[in-house]
Request: fold
Amino acid sequence: MTTKPQRETRKKAVKPVAKKAAKDAAPVLKVRGDEDPWTAPELEEVRTQLGEDIERLISEVSDIELEIMGLMQDSGDGAGDDEADAGTKTFEREHEFSVAQNSREMLVQSQRALRAIDDGTYGACENCGNAIGKMRLQAFPRATLCLSCKQQQERH
Reply:
């Protein structure tokens, strides 16, 4: 009894062209009717900008927090300060708190924008659902509202 040789099964190799095409493909994101769809290089530019903003903001928040800690320690050393000195120290401390909060909010917005690119919701207005607009997002990548909703928000 003779046996037939078994045929080797080979997995088909993925062509490099297919990988390149997948890499260059951008997720389908909402755009206005008068705009072209987002391209991979455009999104990469926005990602890069957001990444740089995130790094800068993390550093900024850290520096501000150190400054606040210094101001808090100095506030106990105010023996003999007159009311103007005490008021100045309080103003500086409150100002640093405000700047820190603003930087933290911008950091959260930048991180949220990156997640929105990844999940395919980037470019949609959080209020009305219409497209925010590529030019607006390229100028201000953290935008979450279209221009008309933003104007309406600012009127209130």
Notes: Residues 32-123 form one domain.
